[in-house]
């Protein structure tokens, strides 16, 4: 049976220019094996890896030549032969820290940094996909979610790539929140609860119920093997944890020394540079599987701040009919291609509230996988609404991808609000005073959000049909 | 393929219609399940399929196809399926060496047409004259989806030209079918997309339109499917007949039912 390495060699010789495919072949072959292993009904992640170890080698022999498709489903296991030759058994499989397979269809997921948001997104962010955050008006809460994503990457030991046109990425990393440890977390939660109980009876949280269960966290910095951590926003991450992280930085004013008129591939100059930078990091660090010698697979977390803003040289936020209307959408398309063929997850914040042309907003959404919009109440008329008095803003899950399946894990609740307590960011379903179930329950109840308590009960009795 | 949808459309893999242009659109929801349906339908009907996938990777369609009973890898190996993966080609065009066949060269240039893409389709579907043993029923072109081309800077007129060329070759000359997906964004001001959709709607003989429910999100009914048949050859009888069904998507199939008669309600 030919070894994995030998096969990789022939692929390289015959298609030397398409070096990308080499890794992709093996990876895609593994993917189909994984998919089949999953259908066997294995529930334990360790069983996945065991079955794939047996199936992976077989597939490597048979499917490597034929399957030229690249898949973003980089599965956890790499047969040991990829590292050192010999395609037989004894393959040692290592899982990537900070990832887990999805319960629904076995995809590899990473945490977005907020366990509540992970649950809304169907368990986490799939590897190889793009999370688009539509910024709130003053970019307060979206930058917080951005930082949660990066902090989660550091705690899990992933490699980061931070790109910004506004702040130096080094400064962004200095402001990351500190991970919470077990006993500290209980204290924070109790403070929050006692605060609330003075005002009104405690609302049982449907979404954030996990906050009531204490997580088992390992103390101290270093790679944590848990999925999803909690962070204390009022404190900064310690210096030694940040220093221990591996990260790449792209700060636009430093990269562009002169605005040359050369525009390759009809993209904005800044976007072109960023794409080349990302592609270089992916290929040099081996995130696309092109370097089979690399024993430990890792995830690349890409964070791009305020894409589409005028600081990137784009004018879709400035004009009704922008001149470079297609720059950002082309960028997103190429980025999608890069993500799909590598072990990476990307978060992008876009100031959508500044984009006048709604067509561009919908095109941007169609080109992203997961789209989350934040709407803060600061300065808006909703601040006075009694329904929203406990919250700081609304969170809209606009889109969740259907990856490798016909269905996606959409949560039932659509009325979600967030609030930033003194230390923790929570997402909750908006509870009206008298509702006990989601709005649609066999069409018999009417949504009575804006009425107050006793009137609610009275009217419901009349209108039940 | 979804057997219930076959019943609604009155087709079966044994006797599919020929020479038709089917337009798939979705509004406020994801119409991707229709693409999976047609892909597996035509593969089961033993047709030669050229699939231009611009937005998702090959393994996405493969894994769903396995749930629907077709094996895309095997189909590609035996030559029944020609798969064009837009994302992969884009990365190769931009970051690979310059000698790549520039099927997607409009990515690089700011104003270009889709001629190279059409030539790719033509080469894939025209039967080669070297007497290959297996003969397929008729060629089918499947595009997912055309709205992405507008996002990439191609003009709507160029996309319409591309579809016109493809229809002339595939539908009229080779007596095959063309199926294309377009996102409808009537809530927003995307005029190019609206123009594209209207023009394609007039050229098509069958329009399948997946819409979200007007009343909002519901767990048991995922959306509504409008089936419009346009009788192009019968000017006197009614031009369009339209049927509306609601559907719920499950892991391996989609169930259709009449409006208001969801199994959750009955």
UniProtKB/TrEMBL annotation, chain A:
Segments traversing the membrane: none
Keywords: Cytoplasm, Nucleus, tRNA processing
A GO cellular component entry from the record: elongator holoenzyme complex
Signal peptide extent: none
Subcellular location: Cytoplasm; Nucleus
Pathway this chain belongs to: tRNA modification; 5-methoxycarbonylmethyl-2-thiouridine-tRNA biosynthesis
Database matches in Pfam families: PAXNEB
Main location: cytoplasm
UniProt superkingdom: Eukaryota
Subunit structure: Component of the elongator complex which consists of ELP1, ELP2, ELP3, ELP4, ELP5 and ELP6.
Function: Component of the elongator complex which is required for multiple tRNA modifications, including mcm5U (5-methoxycarbonylmethyl uridine), mcm5s2U (5-methoxycarbonylmethyl-2-thiouridine), and ncm5U (5-carbamoylmethyl uridine). The elongator complex catalyzes the formation of carboxymethyluridine in the wobble base at position 34 in tRNAs.
UniProt similarity note: Belongs to the ELP4 family.
Annotated PANTHER family: ELONGATOR COMPLEX PROTEIN 4, PAX6 NEIGHBOR PROTEIN PAXNEB
Listed name of the protein: Elongator complex protein 4
Species whose genome carries this gene: Monodelphis domestica (Gray short-tailed opossum)
From TrEMBL, chain B:
Record keyword Hydrolase present: no
A single GO cellular-component term on record: elongator holoenzyme complex
Pathway involvement of the protein, from the record: tRNA modification; 5-methoxycarbonylmethyl-2-thiouridine-tRNA biosynthesis
Cell membrane keyword on record: no
InterPro entries: ELP6, P-loop_NTPase
Keywords for this protein: Cytoplasm, Nucleus, tRNA processing
Gene3D superfamilies: P-loop containing nucleotide triphosphate hydrolases (3.40.50.300)
Subcellular location: Cytoplasm; Nucleus
GO biological process: autophagosome maturation; cellular response to stress; homeostasis of number of retina cells; inflammasome-mediated signaling pathway; locomotory behavior; motor behavior; neuromuscular process controlling balance; neuron apoptotic process
A Pfam family it matches: ELP6
Function: Component of the elongator complex which is required for multiple tRNA modifications, including mcm5U (5-methoxycarbonylmethyl uridine), mcm5s2U (5-methoxycarbonylmethyl-2-thiouridine), and ncm5U (5-carbamoylmethyl uridine). The elongator complex catalyzes formation of carboxymethyluridine in the wobble base at position 34 in tRNAs. Involved in cell migration.
Similarity-based family: Belongs to the ELP6 family.
Name assigned to this protein: Elongator complex protein 6
Organism: Monodelphis domestica (Gray short-tailed opossum)
